[in-house]
Write a structure and sequence with these properties.
Oligomer: homotrimer
Structural class of chain A: mainly alpha
Largest interface: B-C, 48 and 49 residues
Distance between the termini of chain A: 47 Å
Shape of chain A: globular
Number of domains of chain A: 2
Order of helices and strands of chain A: HEHHHHHHHEHEHHHEHHEEHEHEHEHHH
Number of helices of chain A: 20
Largest sheet of chain A: 4 strands, parallel
Radius of gyration of chain A: 23 Å
Number of strands of chain A: 9
Strand order of the largest sheet of chain A: 4-5-8-9
CATH superfamily of the largest domain in chain A: Metal-dependent hydrolases
Helix content of chain A: 40-55%
Chain lengths: 470, 470, 470
């Protein structure tokens, strides 16, 4: 063990074959310093409003990261050992938790977490040894020191990371005060919101009924009538848009959409309000609301994102004791062809709509998503998501979507993260992975190198900027 | 932009690694000039009967190609801009349409359409610059000139392409007059038909009832009784066989088969004729008819092909305005293990039957199709189909089927195209892709090079000829 | 044809790229001579108890191997030509059968059977020419001679193969006499059993009711009451454990589990005993029994394996004439996320349970299995199974599971075979495939070489030993 040198190799993630690697290097050189467009993510706008120092490495890098929690938990560590769910008087010292992390860091070999964390350690913190049992204590001290320095204040990191725009995600019930404070502060970093209406669109969302009451209070609309409810949503979309939002985001269990008659919509809404609805009613309501949202997107121009297909909180014991987002969300087989048809029948032919689809079911790439996006003007494919935001995941995504959907029906990279310090690492992985894929096409004479340069630029920067209207 | 050189690199589609590439080159040299066996496709026999010049590049290369239409449409172009669906007085000049195509040709980067089209441009038309906005006008003039020359008449191209046999696909209601004219003309090009009975087997096919009336008129059989209906089908199969057909083809929504009792078959047929059938009845009838067709194949020796698993005409607005086959067909998850069981229970053990399976659901390659074909004597795997007729699609096909089904339960390549000029390009892609795959096995010492040479020859020529009895 | 040299290339299965191959070679050198841990397989313990010479090459290498039978059958050979299902007076001479095998050995090109068999021929038998029509007769004579020699007695081969431990699989109704004879003999080869209770857990298993009667006789428990039935199972688990078992194995059609109330369990058991149960009842009973087995595993420490998702005996004609395991088992789509939830809700958070999951549905690797194993402490992923126990299958497994589950939620290699002579070949393929995968990660700077050495050792030896408590 002891001190093993940590360095980020200049050729990491490039194919070993010399011809291909040389091309990948050249492509990457063209794009590595491009500004970061982060059109979809989960950082906390308060960080940039307050601009206070991050507390410590554990609360910054470990506890909020469900990738890290899930792996450590799977290897037999308890959540308590990671500092979660303990009463205040039994809380572990963060240094002890970090040591535990170091003791098990080898468990991350071969995972993207390892790539991202090493990038953060080496590039953001300037550390030059691998994290393990022997180095964990030094790691903690070194990072804790850095975090207290001015250079590590959120806004300074934002600028150092060369972020051109960063989107966060908020509920329609959020007053966006932190975004307003950022604007009011005069700081020029562009931190915008995105409209995530699940809490008021999904009848099975915790607190749904209360959320509609709050929505009424915020908007002055009668959210107990379907027309008032839609008017309230329109008003909040407008509010978000005025605070910089260019997109909405929808995290439904499935991709199902519906296009009911006005009478059926109103009856369904009444059923939902009555509380006596079945799971199938809830699914149908969410389905109808996706179509309503697409209609509103055509009115207000907000880009629409759908992130379906996850069994959230699969582990009830964990949910009860430690809450959501602790790594117990599991992907499901996800169907798109029939699910999206009602929405597509109504709006799919309109190039003025941008509907960005994500999936955790890779089988849909070549079978459903690429053929759909390679036909409907309204559809675009989001980048490989969550478990597939990884070198192998990105390779499969390009290999399985490009031949049918091309590159120009995709929208560049999303980091989709709450792990702020890893944003440059994640974009760097994507830029390298795309350079590697393009390099193979060039090496196999399926693409000219000048075309690959243009594409590399588009995949790293241009497509995200255009698709998200940034 | 301007003039970027277009050339077909001698090593295109071969892996960059030098060892592997050298092997791939050697394998490809052995097979590149083999005659083309095209046992399944959709060219128009009238071309070879009439032997008239093709009209223009747009009506030849763009408008009939659903791969091209779907991509341009997905990028926001209207069908009208591509010259479809316009009243005669508003029709666009083909040169204008071609310019639009040139303006958006970069959208095809990374797709097989780009590979096929570049091959057609460079190899068939002798063009040496890449198609783009600046070169589109010259392209049109050059190609239009060529198309008027004797060398570009259909029969001359057929011979230049070194096609040994080309199968077209016809409805049982077709009188095969063009095939007869070809034979009568004394031209020696071998253009045969294939029996595609969907219009008279699928109760949901447009005009089904009228089709049975026509079938009765053609055969003198009573197609209102199940036995007369079967007799009529037998008669048409025989007619097709006498016009060169060696195969049938079935494009059902699923792979479902059935094996009902005689009484149930007759009752189902009556139900279908009554018009009061449900979608499930229609599905069951198609299922039963696949088993009937397999039985007839054992009688007359016609090879049977099943192409299941497509949601046809997913976009109703497009269908209504512009008709079928405009790029709005989307693959569906497709199940084979239970679906094929009734047919296999009855005929699957008979090596005298050849049943060739295709899929658009790549998940079935390793899970269902290779295990089925690697067991049942009657089953063989068709080549990667449609969206998967591409370099990556072919690689996945070989990687996912070979270890369980081997090579000798596959049937070589099908171009499956109506784009006549791209036939050499498509076979060339397949030959290169197979050479590349075999080269990897040789380079990794999983196959001897002399074995790979034999296999390359079989995959390019021998297996198709044998499986389709050509 | 004639005599083509057969040699096992030192670099077989390594990537051709020189950089990567050099790394793979170094990794493989570190592990190639490690002892074999075979924690799951189907060899016959009688071989090692009797230690008699194997009869002949056909009955040893061909007839019991369903991989070989299925391929030859698919290519049109009858089972009778392979010596199966014939009355004694019509039995073919094994030499004739071997000649038939030689005549069709080219059909195995590109399959793992070819890799394993060539390894057996070259390395175990010392043969230096490829099997084909011209060499088959010499092959037979040479092998038959070897099999009569002392060096080829089962125990001597076991030792020559450097097997540290070999697990067989037995029914709870087995008295384990052969295992006892091995122990009594004083031979030090470690041949242990594994507890495979399908015959007494699956109401649809042939002879289920009689099996319960036998179970009662063996244990003195009343297997007509649910509590007595459970007590009998506990007793047999204990008996197996005392004969070396460290694991159980469950071959259910699906991965479904259940967690019924005590009252519902008893009612279901009564229904099953009554014989009037539906397929859904049988499925529910199997589901409940998996959960019961997991509970018992927490009591007695036996590691639990689930091998779901096969349509057994898909070909009824073959089953009727030639029996089970002749190559007519076909994988099915297999769902894990909802299926395993009842069991996981109850026991999934307990690191004291080890539940090893296998699949024949590769789509579940990245979508379901890696996310589940990368979260639940009780879950581990078994190696690629059956059709996927192959170079491409192993590559896909690592590529699709590692980024989410890491390496330490996997359990090393299982050969899962009854083909005793191929055990070294199978482990060698796995060691080479893992070396190749790790080498790519090192070459792409995603892993340090010293980490890869440690991992190679764990994947070849350490993880199996630890996971199976050997």
């Amino acid at each position: 063990m002891m001190k093993i040198p940590l360095s980020l190799h200049a050729d990491r993630l490039f194919p070993a074959d010399k011809t291909t690697r040389d091309i990948a290097r050249r492509l990457y050189q063209e794009i590595r310093h491009l500004p970061i467009i982060s059109p979809h993510g989960h950082t906390d706008p308060r960080w940039f409003a307050d601009n206070l120092a991050f507390e410590n490495p554990v609360s910054l890098l470990l506890q909020p990261d469900h990738y890290v929690l899930r792996m450590l938990y799977s290897l037999g560590l308890s959540m308590e050992q990671l500092g979660l769910g303990q009463a205040a008087d039994r809380e572990l010292d963060p240094e002890v938790i970090w040591q535990t992390f170091g003791d098990h860091y080898h468990g991350f070999r071969g995972t993207p977490s390892r790539l991202w964390l090493d990038h953060v350690f080496a590039d953001v913190f300037g550390i030059d040894v691998v994290l393990n049992s022997d180095t964990a204590a030094d790691y903690y001290q070194h990072m804790q020191g850095k975090l207290q320095s001015a250079a590590f204040l959120p806004r300074n990191l934002f600028e150092r990371f060369n972020i051109e725009v960063l989107a966060t995600t908020e509920s329609p019930l959020d007053d966006l005060r932190h975004h307003q404070r950022i604007v009011n502060s005069g700081w020029t970093g562009k931190v915008i919101t995105a409209f995530r209406p699940d809490p008021v669109l999904d009848p099975e969302y915790e607190g749904f009924h209360g959320n509609l009451v709050t929505l009424a209070a915020l908007t002055g609309e009668d959210t107990q009538s379907f027309s008032g409810y839609l008017a309230a949503l329109r008003q909040r979309r407008d509010y978000f848009k005025r605070h910089g939002a260019t997109s909405t985001d929808h995290g439904h269990p499935s991709a199902r959409t519906a296009d009911l008659s006005d009478r059926d919509k109103a009856a369904l809404f009444d059923n939902i309000l009555s509380g006596g609805f079945s799971p199938a009613d809830a699914e149908l309501f969410r389905a109808q609301m996706l179509t309503e949202m697409a209609g509103m997107s055509l009115e207000d121009g907000l880009v629409m994102q759908i992130h379906p297909g996850v069994y959230r909180n699969h582990n009830p014991q964990l949910l009860q004791r430690f809450g959501r987002d602790k790594g117990a969300d599991i992907p499901l087989p996800t169907e798109y062809v029939r699910a999206l048809k009602p929405l597509l029948d109504k709006y799919g032919n309109d190039p003025a709509l941008t509907l960005i689809l994500f999936t955790l079911d890779e089988t849909s790439y070549s079978r459903e998503l690429a053929p759909l996006a390679g036909h409907y003007p309204a559809l675009k494919l989001g980048p490989p998501w969550w478990f597939h935001d990884s070198p192998e995941g990105m390779r499969r995504y390009r290999e399985q979507t490009t031949e049918t959907a091309g590159f120009y029906n995709t929208v560049g990279f999303n980091d989709d993260t709450r792990a702020f310090l890893s944003i440059p690492a994640r974009h760097d992985v994507a830029r390298r992975a795309d350079s590697a894929f393009l390099a193979r096409l060039v090496a196999e004479h399926r693409l000219l190198e000048n075309e690959a340069v243009e594409l590399a630029h588009d995949l790293a920067y241009g497509l995200a900027k255009k698709a998200y209207k940034l």
